[in-house]
Amino acid sequence: MNPVLLIQLTENDKRIIFALCIVIILLFVIIGLLGSLVVRTMKWQGKKCDSLVSDVVTNRIITTPHQLRKYAAVKNSRCFLKQAWIPLVLMIVATLIIVIRDAVMNNWAYNPFNIDNGFGSLLFVWKLTYNNPEEYTIIFGVKILAKWVLVNEPHFVVEALSSYIAVPLAVVGVLWYLVAAQAYLARTIRSWKLSKTVFEKSLDNYNQNAPQQPENSEPVQ
To answer: C-alpha distances in angstroms, 39 versus 8, 25, 204, 219?
Structure first.
């Protein structure tokens, strides 16, 4: 960055630039940590496939890669159904609560997340304002920030009682289902890898010209 430009900046502008750099670095760190967590979780979830197919492989009931993939797909689907039925029920119950509420109140345009009579009434909500030019921060001649205004503080609304129940159920159900779906994908990937390695024949350590030791010969003392 040109030192002349830094000299021309006010102390407030310098603090804003420093804060933006910190935020960008934190975003990259968080994204990296989340990516690493997803990879580790996928590997851990994929190991479940080993326990699902280990018996039929070790007992030589399955002898081809195609049979292994087919058997693993069946077992994986059953495992997914066992893990996914509870979150599906939670999402269905949350949907029914909102539908019944809309039918009783005769208001099919109801938003369960709004801040007036929805779940948003329990949250702090800020909004960017663009009406007053003095609220902008200008850096290098570009408007990059505006003033945040608090438009809602947590408060209880009786009319939002249905959303207080439905929204947490829906959020838990969706997150739970996503974890189950991720586990299903991890086991599927693992089953394809196993089908290629379990029955693989390798000649990496075989040397046809190496002297062969007789079967009945005793090792040299």
So the answer is: 46, 21, 30, 48
Pick from 145, 124, 121, 123: nearest CA to 133: 145
Calpha distance 161→219 (Å, rounded): 82
Reported as a single tens digit per residue, the pLDDT across 158-203 is: 888 999 999 999 999 999 999 999 999 999 988 888 888 877 776 6
Tokens of 41: 């979780």
The confidence score (pLDDT) of residue 87 equals: 95
**Cβ neighbours around 110 below 10 Å, total:** 17
User: How many CA within 13 A on the CB side of residue 190?
Assistant: 24
Tokens representing 106 are 């005769």
User: Residue 125 is encoded by which pair of tokens?
Assistant: 């909500």
User: How far, in Å, CA of 93 to CA of 99, rounded?
Assistant: 10
Q: What is the pTM of this model?
A: 0.71
DSSP 158: G
Question: Which amino acid type is present at position 84?
Answer: A
Beta bridge partners of 137: 145
Q: Which amino acid is at 52?
A: L
114/45 Cα distance (integer angstroms): 37
Only one residue has tokens 């921060």, namely: 137
Length of the chain equals 221
Q: Which of 128, 103, 130, 98 is nearest to 114 (CA)?
A: 98
CA distance 190 to 185: 9
CA distances from 35 to 5, 45, 73, 175 (A): 37, 15, 26, 17
